[in-house]
Amino acid sequence: MMGSMSAPSSLLRIQRAVNHQGKRAYHDLVTLPTKKPIVAQGPPGYSAVSGHVVTVFGCTGFLGRYLVSKLARMGTQVIIPYRDEDEKRHLKPMGDLGQIVAMEWDIRNENQIAECVRHSDIVFNLVGRDYATKNFDFASVHVDGAERIARVTAQSGVPRFVHVSHLNASASSSSKLYQTKAEGEERVTAAFEGATIIRPGPLYGYEDKLLNNMAIWPIWWKLNNAKTTTRPVHVMDVAQALANLVHNPQLARTIALPGPSTLTYEYLLDLVSSLTYQPPSRAPVLPKTVALAVAKLAQAPWWPLLSPDEVVRRYIDDADTPGDWDAVGVTPSEIEQHAIQYVRRYRSAENFSRPNVFPQRPILTEEPYGLGF
Ligand SMILES: NC(=O)c1ccc[n+]([C@@H]2O[C@H](COP(=O)([O-])OP(=O)(O)OC[C@H]3O[C@@H](n4cnc5c(N)ncnc54)[C@H](OP(=O)(O)O)[C@@H]3O)[C@@H](O)[C@H]2O)c1
């Protein structure tokens, strides 16, 4: 028996998972030196099997849908924890039969979290909220919830954990979201040794709350005279960066993923207005106190309308932390390359096919990647 195991040992060995329970899964059976899972079959794609099993908490959100799609297309089995039956339906056809496994969960229920991560070799935590609700304030999601997921994941013997935070996470921030994101990072790193912390900039894409919101509610982006600076990043680039981590060795550190350029809200409003052929907004610039009062009132009918913390965030420039894109093997793209795909729907019928017009970009910083659009 030993002989038959040792003969091809230079090519094929069983790598034991280094974890608390000595648990082993499909992906532990690897060929050396490539470390490719033996169970992997077929060329990469929808019907391939990569041997990896990945849990994506927060899969039903904006970033989650693109990450699940990218993982499934690599032939990875994805566990998708969900709260609302209808919120996960679009994820099911993203992978081949049996590759997308939905499991109901509650962020307060440790047993359900343990069930969701039981067979996985990487767990992603994308759970986050940009407004507080009646049941969940910022801390219960970004701090307690994140720590609980990280701790249960570690106790379940999963070797890798990736936590998505925010570029502006800072304990001293005046925004509750950024404050709790910073506290969450600390608690996650303490609960899961060697966790990877990802800090993306503001995301734009089809379902974003940036370009879409600017097209519908420009008045809320004119706060601070629209001079606040931001580093928007394409949701596909961040999803690809996360998906690439599956095949990379564990990066036990914080990775900032801001967009390649620093821009003002003023420029982005101009961009949306030029691309949609809508005249620039004539709405007045509201003082902060008025905006805060309106945001507080808006909480009564419906939380996501405009939260007071969002008003505070409109006055905070995005952190100038350098991007660490090389570590994740992605070159981030400029917003002008993609914006039209996401805002064309705001054009009127007669303007729908007219050429794209771009406003003049103000020079704020040196562009590290160049304007390739
Ligand atoms: N969007 C951005 O511009 C941006 C920028 C930087 C960092 N981030 C971070 O990236 C992550 C993903 O962002 P996103 O834009 O995809 O967010 P999103 O669209 O708001 O999705 C948030 C996800 O978190 C889940 N979630 C929220 N509260 C929960 C709770 N109490 N219990 C269980 N699940 C809960 C949601 O589940 P349900 O569908 O069940 O509600 C959803 O799957 C977040 O951590 C966010 O803070 C986002």
UniProtKB/TrEMBL annotation:
InterPro entries: ComplexI_NDUFA9_subunit, NAD(P)-bd_dom, NAD(P)-bd_dom_sf. This is 39kDa subunit of Ndufa9, NADH ubiquinone oxidoreductase. It holds the Pfam family NAD_binding_10. Keywords: Ubiquinone. Residues 58-249 form the NAD(P)-binding domain. CDD domains: NDUFA9_like_SDR_a (cd05271). GO terms for molecular function: protein-containing complex binding. One of its GO terms (cellular component) is mitochondrion. It comes from Rhodocollybia butyracea.
